[in-house]
Amino acid sequence: MSARAGGEEVTTDSPAGENGVGPLRAAAFFDLDRTLMAGSSGIFFARAAYEAGMITRRRLARDAYENLRFRLRGSTDDRADQVRRRVGEMIADVPVRELQRLSPRVLAGVLPRLYPQMLERAYAHQDAGELVYIVTAASQEMADLLAHVLAFDGGLGSRSEIVEGRYTGRAAGPFNYREGKVLSMRELAERERIDLAASYAYSDSESDLPMLRAVGNPVVVNPDQDLRRIAAAEGWEVLRLDRLGRRLKMLAAVGAVTALGGMGRVLSEHVGARADPRALQSRASGLPLRRPIRRRARR
């Protein structure tokens, strides 16, 4: 049978009874960064790697800066590719167990930044009999770890090649980003008999538009500018939870207005000084401008 999902027709398997393999199930797919949690999980992996001596302080500072930009503006294709290359270079020839030992430090940073509202949504899906998965461009190890800790049904992430217990630095499959997420979702749907047309997807970024359109119930969370516009046009549900991101943007706007106000005052004083040579002389000397004393005429 076929059903419409996110504006596109999606073909699903036969219902229960036609082929004897049981009914289809709905699922809920959650992006991780800026959707399930505030900010990026990558910065906590970078901090743990720095503490373990795997990266330099300069690299950590760069990752912290990129995390701030991501918090304010969301992801871009170029930055996602750059992060993937850097991580591949960093883990090349590193034993799998060494990265596994970073898990407690990573979780210590990520868990406090999970949105309680999103966890409530995820658990409500489970209580309704629907499967719940994390779908992230981060590593498969990160997806599996969080899915286990949060009692989700599983996680879909980017896989890295492992040879004889060590990472090679090469990918072991498609990058779980943009269309890559849809590929992994469809493979899972076929394996677990999930009806994508009856399923949900949650994300913050325009880069996840393929993921959102692959299901029948897309929900956008803390959307970037492009996704906000698309969601409004499509009539999708919008959740706004990232208060810090909005505050940072407001502070940036206030800073810009303050700077413009300061420039205006300087310009006004400069123009006033040109109109009154005594004001210019007063500024140069640092002494207050003396106003002429008007004497009253004696009667």
Give a nutshell description of this structure.
With 299 residues, this protein is of the alpha/beta class. It has helices spanning 42-51, 57-73, 77-91, 96-100, 103-110, 116-127, 140-149, 179-192, 209-213, 225-234, 243-275, 277-285, and strands at 2-5, 8-11, 27-30, 131-139, 154-158, 160-163, 166-171, 200-203, 217-221, 237-239.
Fill in the keyword field for this structure.
299 residues, alpha/beta, Rossmann fold, 2 domains, two-stranded antiparallel sheet, 12 helices, 10 strands, disordered N terminus
How does this model look, in words?
This protein is an alpha/beta fold. It has helices at about 40-50, 55-75, 75-90, 95-100, 105-110, 115-125, 140-150, 180-190, 210-215, 225-235, 245-275, 275-285; strands at about 1-5, 10, 25-30, 130-140, 155-160, 160-165, 165-170, 200-205, 215-220, 235-240. It folds into two domains: about 25-240, HAD superfamily/HAD-like (Rossmann fold), CATH 3.40.50.1000; about 245-285. It contains twelve helices and ten strands. Helix 7 links the parallel strand 4 (about 130-140) and strand 5 (about 155-160). The longest helix has about 35 residues, at about 245-275. The model is unreliable at about 1-20, about 245-260 and about 280-290 (pLDDT under 50).
Which value, in Å, is the CA radius of gyration?
A: 28 Å
Shape annotation:
globular
With strands numbered from the N-terminus, the spatial order across the biggest sheet is 5-4-3-8-9-10
User: Could you state the CATH homologous superfamily of the largest domain?
Assistant: HAD superfamily/HAD-like
Low-confidence stretches: 1-18, 245-260, 282-289
Tally of contiguous helical segments: 12
SS content category: alpha/beta
How many domains would you count in the coordinates?
2
Here the CATH topology of the largest domain equals: Rossmann fold
For the biggest sheet, the summary is: 6 strands, parallel
Tell me, rounded to a whole number, the average pLDDT.
Answer: 81
Give the terminus-to-terminus CA distance.
108 Å
Q: Please state the second-level CATH architecture of the largest domain.
A: 3-Layer(aba) Sandwich
